[in-house]
Amino acid sequence: MADHITVPTVRGVEQRSPDPAWAPLTEPLFRSLWIAAVISYTGTWMQNVGAGWLMTQLTTSPLMVGLVQAAGAIPVFLVVLPAGALADMVDRRQLLLFTQSWMVLAAAALGILTLLGAANPWAVLFFTFVMGVGAVMNDPAWQAITPDVVSPHRHASAVALNSVGFNVARAAGPALGGIVVAAAGSGWSFLLNAASFFGVIIFLYTWKRAPQEALPTPSMRAAIGEGFRYVQGAPQVKSVLVRTGAFSIGASSLLALLPVVCQPHGAQGYGFLLTCFGLGALAGAAVLPRLRMQYSVDGLVVSATIVFAIMTFAAGQVHIFEWLCLVLFTAGAAWIGILACFNVVAQTMCPSWMRARALSMYLLVLQGGMAIGSALWGAVASRQGVPEALAWSALAMVVGLSTIRRHRLTAVELEMAPAIVRD
Fold first, then answer.
1. Which residues make Cβ contacts (< 8 Å) with residue 244, sequence separation at least 6?
2. The pTM is what?
């Protein structure tokens, strides 16, 4: 027997008491996917540590070491828009099974080559690039299925929990990766990453999702063009992209320059500060549902952006480790508030048949802005110093808030399908 419960998404429902921040985890479907995703994210961070360390063992060239990060970032600019179009053209579940399997094979191949002693710098760059392509092809479809695995009225909390899971992995993954690399070598970090994808693959394989209706578009190029035309005629979508770009370029400086800030505190200090950032994200996610009841999306984003800008500036001025921990904790809480709001609006600003393409444009602006910003603030830090670069980036975030005058976000989400509760 099934009871069909329609959950309205209009502003009036905001007057009721909010669900706890962890409420989506009470739903078996979302809980299973979330746990599998956290394990997969952790494996990815372990691989990042292993790849960076392996490159330092294979070559003394700073350029080649730096290219490891670039090899993973370049696919964002190359394939994210086709990935979004493809996710709207084919069944997203099948696409995700393909991309997850792609990453398993790439990680396993690099792991085997490394254990056999056959890896060289170009092989590390090649497989890092291949992993990046798989991750970027995965992202739009991955984010587009969130409304399919959680009740509509818990969607915002689910998005926040997804971001929390990523930050938990970011805190734990590098530490675990360092332990594995030190104990067994980089090859095992790659193989463990390959194994970490199987939880998601099993979930996708067993998920009884209704087949996705095929997009009546003759080609990928036509689908991408249709996406751009949709954005041009959708002020809400343009507002999300403008606001995301204004934030991401300035916000990239804190995490990009944190290793330099942490030099006096060593590698363990760096890892602990990342943990503080992740714990702050957990705390931010816990209070976010109540804040969403009391403030508009724009109010939340503006307040959290100002807090994050202040913490970015403070990171360049504070030298006492305990105070740096507090700075990173507070920054993590603000970060989750900003990204959760952006992600919810990005996932609900378009109908289902356009969702993945709109998300691909959002991801391009967010990740591309972070990549460009990291390079920009790194160059400023080289010329003027790290405190100055952090101060200028904090100012850039505050100035970016001026875009709110013409590009407001809305708390009214698109109407979603009824939630189905089965006895």
1. 342, 346, 362, 365, 366, 369
2. 0.74
